[in-house]
Amino acid sequence: MSFGVGLNSAILGLNAARFGLQIAGQNIANVNTPGYTRQRALLGSTFPIQSGQGFYIGTGVQVDTVNRILDGRLEARIRTQNGLFGFADTHFRRMSEIEGVLGEPGENGLSGLMNGFFGSIGKLRSSAGSRALRGGMIQSAKTMASGFNLLASRYEDMRSDTFQEIEAHLREVNTFAKTVANLNAQIVTLEATGHKANDLRDRREIAINHLSELMDTQAIERDDGVLDVLAGGYLLVSGSRASDLSATKNPDGTTKITVGSTTTGIQISEGRISALLESEKNRLPGILSKLDLAARTIALEVNRLHTTGINKRGPFTSLASDNPIKDGDNDGKFTDELLVSGDFPFEITNGDLYVTVTNLTTKNIERTRIAINPTSMSLGDLSNAIDAIDHLNANVDPTGRLRISSESGFGFDFSNALDPLPNSSGTFGGTSASLGGNVSGPFNFSTLPASFNIAVDGGPATAITLNSNDFKVPSSVSAIELSQVLNGKFAAVTLNVTAHSVGNNISIKADSSGPSSSLSITDGANTPAATMGIPVGTTANGQTDGVSVTISGEYTGSINGHFRFVAEGNGEIGVTPGLKVGVFDSSGNKIASLNVGQGFSAEDDLLEVTEGVKVTFGHGTISATDGHQFALDVTNDSDTTDVLVALGLNTFFTGSTATDLGVAKRLVDDPDLVAAALSTGATGDSSNLARIEALRSSPFSSLNENTIEGFYADLASDLGFEAKSASDLLVSRDSLLNFLNEQRESISGVNIDEEMVDIVRFQQAFEASSRYIGILSQMTQTLINLGRV
Amino acid sequence: MAFRVTQTILTTQTLNNITRNARRLNQLRERLSTGSRINRPSDDPTTFLRILPLKNNIADLVRFQDNSVLASDIVNTSSAAFEDAVSLMSQAKEIAITGANGTLNHEDRATLAAQVDGILQQMVSISNSKLGDRFLFSGTSTSTAPFVKTETKSGTLVTYVGNASPVTVDIAPGTSAEISSSGKKLFMNTSRSSTTFTGRTGAATGSGTDSGRGMAVLSVEHTGFTGLPANVSAGSTASTAVGSMTYNITTPPNMISVNGGPAVSFDATSTDLAITTGSGDTVYLDMSAYVGGPLSGTFTSDARMSYDGGQTYVTVDFLSSNQVVKNADTGSILNVDSTAIVRTGKEQVAFGGTFDAFNVLSALRDLLQNDLSLDEAQVPARITALIGELDSVSDNMLEGLRVLGARGANLDLTRNRMSRLELTMQDALSRDQDIDLSRVILQMSQADVAYQASLGAGARVITPTLLNFL
């Protein structure tokens, strides 16, 4: 052994110890560095040389390499778990925020506000006239509406904020992707020298971990040390090249994530970004659509009842619709727009609208049916149909709104109130002579021309001839059409008689009155009088005082139609024994027979007809021979088309979504206009409020047979369940991530104790090597000294 | 537990534990400070779903109780007012009993009549009682005074202008109470029975059903003659005998007798000859121009009837057993059997069972004033007859009072039931929603101990490394 070799190996020992110390120092220094992987110096003895004796002995120590202590499979699992955790964490935050916005359970949550609204209706019902309670009801309706508005706008804000949040996250993704690409380049360069670029790899690991928390990320290491990153199934980092992700908005408001300059979106299934996308695409729109549905149902159902109610001031004298029609063909005209394409908040369906005109002095009402087919009826047609009603004027104003007004002394409404005086035309025991037909229309005048003769007040008989061109469809002539045709004929020959439609039947009445008024009809060619069922060959006479008929009560039946009251027998009301009045429904079925003969106290006794309708007859003579009859319109729903709701005529709520729900300004300005009643002139009548309040407990098919409040409670509780499961998910994913991180830490983390032991170890090795040098030096000295001797 | 434990593991784990304990402590603190176990739906979604309807139910119950308090106020006020009305009726009865005393003279009765008129005024005023701005007895027409008093030719008329639909409020689930009653039922409840005619005209009730109410006057007036012999005409004085009658004229001496009455002599000056008929009534004939010989035959003394103080007349058809006479003021009808009408005069008509709190008083007043100018001696008997009607009106009103009273009692009962129900529901809500205070405090102190322990453990575990010992 030569001293040279010995010294050399000692120096190598010193170096190795110093290097070991340095690594331990590095480890200790990075004890708290996130993502730092502890390093180990791997030492190996140097190549041996042959000694003089022929042995091979080592020449010292060398540092073979510096290893990072890590488990590659664990790293991959952590990366996956990062994505799962990132999703759960963001999802949980979102859900807590969504749930928090509801403010349930609490006074100011929507459930409390809805309860307040329905409660205020219940309160008002006890004192329907009270202005203070009316104001209170409007106030709580406004509060509920703004509760809906607030929720909707908060969720809408959250949805639109999502885009910004995603953009921010994408900027991070792009930064991390660039970092990985840069590090890839450096690592390849460095490791080409055969040494591991440990610290750079640590940094790359950190960047990828961050990336995996934001979106699902896969890393594939190539042999040359390059790490390719797949994100959302797309090669985000390839070697030293990184692609940019960017966000754009889809037409439906959702966010699309694209790579580089491509336009196709990529699917992101995990990570924070995916949680945001999910809440933007499904959760928030789901909640919003449910809120909208609840708001829409409230608005529609309350409005349906409100539009057909009567307010404290009685029938309207003028009213304008809230919702203008859309000028769909852009021709500057609104009248030609079909109702179906009017862009109204609610759909108009096929059906009937009943408009009631009240004579404000006599309280006499006239109800007119308007058949509405939204696919063929324009707003102008509707306006004309209303304008055609006696005492009403209607037009479409320049803003596309329907305006209705009544002549002075008259009012109008859309209620189901019964006509208190249904015999105003006097075809039932009236002062004028009248003959009523017992055949219900539509009438079939198959063989025309047909004629009959009519003699009035003892005058000569005049022939009236019906021709085929008089009718639209001669084989099916409605009572209303027939009465109009007949009146035209009578006027043409200046005959002082008038035809009236009584339900689906016809009555012909002389214009004269009193005992001298007389009327007789004989049939001519093709017997049209027989077709109408009008008694022929008899002479009807008038009387001094007509029979008064007064109706009271509220119709509780379910159909829209009429009751026809027919004299069954001739005689004086209250006097003639066994005198009866029969009542028939619109389909001709007899539904009641009322005893008005001896034992009936005229003007006094209230007779129950059926389904809540009550009638009182005054004194006078009625005649079955002359076919005395009158009709009472009964309507269960005076608007089966929702046209009033759609146009916003006398509605309670405006708007049709959670965002635009509000209370009609008319009512806010004047709470007396709340339609609490179903009858005119009864301040304390709250029967319409009772109908509105009953909505509270009715299930609606649009809400899956749930009540409005039940539907909302389900929504809130569903969110509760989701928030809870989001929180549970976060806890479990967090603890698994913690566990994995602990595993990693356990393998790759720095333990100071270990490092201290290493330091002591290397210190001792250093000291020993130094000592070896000292000994070699002494030995050399000894040899030198030998030479001096 | 990791096999190899590093300092970072220690600190991270300790920190995690501290955070977990702090979170638990925070949750308990929230529960304790709000007193509520469920502060957001996710705290317990199942229970939350139960809480919402429960809260609504409780709000309903509170409203039901509010409603029944309001209803009680109204019903009690109505009761008190109606009680006054009932006591007015007994005052009226006392006056009637006094008035039925035959020793009173016209002036005495007039004084009593003034008192009854005062009672009638009060009755009208009570029937229009208000609570706040709400009329109590007008059905749903709560802003309209329900009873209107008008003076007509046919007498004082009080009409009901309210409606028959009561205002109802919900006082329990599915149960509503009437609060504003229809005054017609309370003050005017009637059950029509037969109509009685009091008087001497011979008019009787016809076969038809009358619609008049209370008491009315049918007056029968002479209008003229038909079928008089030649040269005989009506005298200037209106006859009191009406109907078909026989006559017998003898000459000479010129004597005439009618309907079996005593023969009366006449001459050229007999322009207004009073002839007493067999029934004791008188016909007045102008016999001065009679020149014929003895003659006998029949003539008719015509008459007309009115039931509305002379506004409308119906000619008496002495052969009709049912003539309809109409009242222009009320539109009501009176059926008269005219076959036995023999003399003119005023017939007092009482529509049995139709007396109400108003018309019984006006009838009493009119009787006391003797508006019909009856023989003073007849008045007491008629008043006595009216006392019977007065009693039945009082009975009807007492029945109404009983109904109001029962309504009040029922309201109280229901309110108590609702308040008990509310307590039960509050209990249920509290069980679902509220914290068990002692338990949460206990849990909180446990959590606090755990938190502090984890802090302490953290402090101890983080410090030592081998470094400390080298």
List keywords for this structure.
heterodimer, A: 789 residues, alpha+beta, four-stranded antiparallel β-sheet, 14 helices, 34 strands, 40% helix, B: 470 residues, eight-stranded antiparallel β-sheet, three-stranded antiparallel β-sheet, 7 helices, rod-shaped
SSE layout:
The complex is a heterodimer of chains A (789) and B (470).
Chain A: H1 3-29, E1 39-45, E2 49-50, E3 56-57, E4 61-68, H2 72-102, H3 110-126, H4 131-191, H5 198-214, E5 217-221, E6 227-231, E7 234-238, E8 241-242, E9 245-249, E10 255-259, H6 271-307, E11 318-320, E12 351-359, E13 365-372, H7 379-387, E14 392-396, E15 402-406, E16 410-413, E17 434-436, E18 450-456, E19 462-466, H8 479-492, E20 497-502, E21 505-510, E22 518-523, H9 528-532, E23 539-541, E24 549-553, E25 561-568, E26 571-572, E27 580-584, E28 590-595, E29 607-610, E30 613-617, E31 621-622, E32 629-634, H10 643-647, E33 653-654, E34 662-663, H11 665-669, H12 687-694, H13 708-748, H14 752-788
Antiparallel strand pairs in A: 1-4, 2-3, 5-6, 6-7, 7-8, 9-10, 11-15, 12-13, 12-16, 14-15, 17-21, 18-19, 18-22, 20-21, 22-23, 24-30, 25-27, 25-32, 26-31, 27-28, 29-30, 33-34
Helix pairs in contact in A: 1-14, 2-5, 2-6, 2-13, 3-4, 3-12, 4-5, 4-6, 6-12, 6-13
Chain B: H1 7-34, H2 45-99, H3 106-127, E1 130-131, E2 134-135, E3 147-152, E4 155-160, E5 167-172, E6 175-180, H4 183-188, E7 195-198, E8 204-205, E9 215-226, E10 233-234, E11 243-250, E12 255-258, E13 264-265, E14 273-276, E15 282-286, E16 295-306, E17 314-315, E18 323-326, E19 333-337, E20 345-351, H5 359-369, H6 379-433, H7 437-462
Antiparallel strand pairs in B: 1-2, 3-4, 5-6, 7-20, 8-19, 9-16, 9-20, 10-15, 11-12, 11-16, 12-13, 14-15, 16-17, 18-19
Helix pairs in contact in B: 1-7, 2-3, 2-6, 3-5, 5-6
